[in-house]
Amino acid sequence: MKEIKMKKKKRFDYIDVIAHIVLILFSACILYPMLHVLAVSFSGVLPILQNRVTIFPIDFTFENYTFFMEHSEFISGFVNQVWYTIEGVAANLFFTALMAYPLSKMRLIGRKWIMRLCVFTMYFSGGLIPLYMQIRNMGLGNSEWAWIFGGLIATYYLIIMINGYQAIPESLYEAAYLDGASDFQVFFMIALPLTKATLASLGLFFFINHWNSWYSAMLYLDDPAKFPLQLFMRSVLIEDELMKNTPEFSQEIAPIGVKNSLIVLSMIPVMVVYPFVQKYFVTGVMMGSVKG
After folding, report:
1. How far apart are CA 5 and CA 206, in angstroms?
2. What is the 3-state secondary structure (H, E, C) of the chain?
């Protein structure tokens, strides 16, 4: 019996070693491009042009970053992106939580048909042109509310939130009603506090979606002063508009260094927010995915 146990233990040790090696290689594949971008953003012109930069900066400099700090379009785009993201995440969380709560109650009249309509939108939609015409007819053109209202509630996240509510024991709701609490009191004082892990996880998803959003802004915004950071990044990284209008490039500043610094600057908010939400992430998704 002891020999059998030893063999099983040894077998699992081999599996653990292989798993660790695979994870290390996978992590290296993710980390290397990030470190390379970071190193290039802090390197001088000559090492970049000679392609000598790997994961460590050469001729360390902040010139690539100071260039954008003095650029008005970058400053306004960064501020707009932060503000639009805050608005979008707050609106998404509020309306998703508000709609999911009654749908989590089996006694809701017509719940089955409402859920079927919601799930239907996951597979079929009216298309981009009808949505664009509707947004314009509502008078939301050239406003950030155009794409916030256009994607206010996502069915997938709605279902996760519904399951999060259903994971709460029904006895808590019944006890609150026996004490004379109203539906709104139960919602704000019991349901929301007990699903904060799910809300934090969905908030992270919404945050990343809004922070990386550029297509909707390109469709609905006409005023350059309202453009978010992602549209500015698109003009720099893809269309090279900034490079064409800046003669000092390739002489004092390398274009690829400036592009990489812009990528690093755009990653900072996500890297700042994620550590505060990470502890709720696994718990929230698991609680919202499987009914308890």
Report:
1. 48
2. CHHHHHHHHHHHHHHHHHHHHHHHHHHHHHHHHHHHHHHHHCCCHHHHHCCCCCCCCCCCCCHHHHHHHCCHHHHHHHHHHHHHHHHHHHHHHHHHHHHHHHHCCCCCCCHHHHHHHHHHHHHCCCCHHHHHHHHHHCCCCCCCHHHHHHCCCCHHHHHHHHHHHHCCCHHHHHHHHHCCCCHHHHHHHHHHHHCHHHHHHHHHHHHHHHHCCCHHHHHHCCCHHHCCHHHHHHHHHCCCHHHHCCCCECCCECHHHHHHHHHHHHHHHHHHHHHHHHHHHHHHHHHHHCCC
pTM score of the predicted model: 0.79
Residue 239 confidence class, pLDDT cut points 50, 70, 90: low
